[in-house]
Amino acid sequence: MKPIIPAVLIACLAIGVSSADDTASSTVTDDLQGKDGVRIQTMCTHCNSSNIQVGGLSQDLVPIYIGGYPILGGLAVSMVFNVLPADDIADTKVSKGPGEAVDPASAAGGTIRLTEAKPEEIPWLDLAVEAGSFSLRDASLRAAGPITPWMSGSIVFGMTEADPIDDDRDGWNDVGSLDREYAKARLLFEAGDDHRFDLGGTYIAEDTLEARGGFDVLAYTFGGTGEPSWTREDTLLDRTEFRAGWEWTIPSGGTLAIRGLKAERDQSVLSQLTVLDLGDFDDFFERFRIREENSWAAATWSRTLGLRAMLETGIEMDDQEVGALTLDPMEPTTSGLDYVERRAAHADLDWTVNPKLALQFGLRYDDFAWGARDLGIEKDDQVVSPRVTLQYLPSPEWTFRLIAGKTARAPKPIFTEVCCGQKYQRSHTSDLETGTTFGLESEYQPSPDFRLSLYAARTDFDDYLIKVVGWSQFYIQTYTLGNIPEARAETMEMAFNWSANRRVAFDGSIGWLTFTNTGDPDVTFQVTPPSFSSPQDQIVPISRVPYQPVRTGSVGMNLSLPKGISIAAGGSYTGQMLIQQYNEDPGAAQNVLLPEMRSSGDFWMVNLSFQAPIGKYLTLEGGVANLTNKLQTDLGDPTTDYNWGPLNGKSYRLGLKYHLDR
């Protein structure tokens, strides 16, 4: 499991919420980190996973939308947040908790909604090149603007390359080399005054080569050094997405919107059996071949009711299929096609009682089906979720929101996220998760230059979904998805934004999370060990939910200097978390997974970035990531394969952007 972003693949975390036009931001990550307590913790593109925190919760409990369309999977999230230019996004709305029925079924933490900039709002031509540490090479070209009086569009092409990284100098790459190509196209047009259409597509191909794979027991046993050894792994990914939408402003009142999306992802994982020169065993062979298909469609209708109320209703469907062909000769039984289907309807009534009090009440219905098509296994469940938000404004400076709602989440196919030489137990045996959240959000804003917010919430989960190691044999982990019957997350977050003057702005956040198993501490997971042909129950003791940091935080500064120069400095803090661990002797027992969990370290990531115009059309950009050169201290320790900290140390980047504004 490799959840930490290599520093060369992310832009410096410029903590701030200003637009990319007046800060040193170069990606959406730059702009969003720290906004309203948002914590962009980890992204692993070749794992197809992302971990973005809102309301103290993260990952699937914080759905993300762009332009009204969901962002599906870590590779898609990474493209929007870390690859495309920051000024592709014009605005961001962060909703805490499940207070609105229009928010997705799983939104226990909250929802992030990104608004795309119109083509005429961004430079009509951008050409950027960049170089940096680890032989980073990056180039992109973007063109945007009106095509006819009723049509506009934008198109982006780019590529990124970087060498593998072994910053702890143990002889094994902690980050593989990168070879990425990507493109995005968007077309907007209007038919009269009432009809608006948008069409779009994205493509990204990303190869991660010579990365660290699984533990090499043959090299460890017969290599003669007695030191941990690892196989190498290549991950080849490509993803395409097409979307289309129509919005109609109804002359008699109201708005009707219909949107649809289709995405496909292909992944191939190539591994070695051993690094030892034993015939062809050190050659790469294809261990996994994965194909994922996502389909999503939604229709919404809204209109005002008099002067004080608004009604919004909608229907939605989404399907996910993940087919995995396991070619590992040691594990031939995990191939198959797992799926999740959802059909939903929702309605929200927003009523302004008086200038100080507003009430929003919603109800959503979700019908889930999931299982294994090749095995003829199907499960289904239906959930009715009431959602309520009560907003009170006692004075112009203060706002209070009381949020309550129910959420639901189906077990997604475990082969959605695969990497690092590990093995996986298919997920169709897991049950539906439900949760009930109560939260209180307060805001204090005495002036446009200062804003302080506080959010406290409690979520009680039934059958909380969690992926853990269910079996470890020779330090090769078998991951399984299962349910904690009863769990509770209690969180509190504080965030502030302060523009001290027209040149200096500060912001920051701090969060506390207590996530506990409130039921039986011995949790049962189903797992098929590599040496068995049938699944068996495995007990994993869990008192505190693992892989959840108990403290998080961020702090940053944006500085605007004369002549258009801007500098951003910031840091993000990740506190301790519980992680699983394994016996020190991989051959001591068939299953070396230990019942006790280990506490990881805490760390700060400090970053710096800048932009400096050179004449009318050129801008110099650069930055330093991981300024304090923080590196996880146990990267080569096989008794835990969870990378809780930075995988590489300090890195630099420097580039030029040529742009033609209107």
UniProtKB/TrEMBL annotation:
SUPFAM superfamilies assigned: Porins
Domain TonB-dependent receptor plug residues, every copy: 21-111
Keyword Transmembrane among record annotations: yes
GO molecular function terms listed in the Swiss-Prot or TrEMBL record: siderophore uptake transmembrane transporter activity
GO cellular component, one term: cell outer membrane
Domain TonB-dependent receptor-like beta-barrel: 207-627
Cell location: Cell outer membrane
Highest taxon of source: Bacteria
Membrane topology value: Multi-pass membrane protein
UniProt-listed InterPro entries: Beta-barrel_TonB, Beta-barrel_TonB_sf, Plug_dom, Plug_dom_sf, TonB-dep_rcpt-like
Keywords: Cell outer membrane, Membrane, Receptor, Signal, TonB box, Transmembrane, Transmembrane beta strand, Transport
Main location, first listed in the record: membrane
Signal peptide annotation: 1-20
A biological process term (GO) from this entry: siderophore transmembrane transport
Entry similarity comment: Belongs to the TonB-dependent receptor family.
Name the UniProt record assigns to this protein: TonB-dependent receptor
Protein's organism: Candidatus Polarisedimenticola svalbardensis
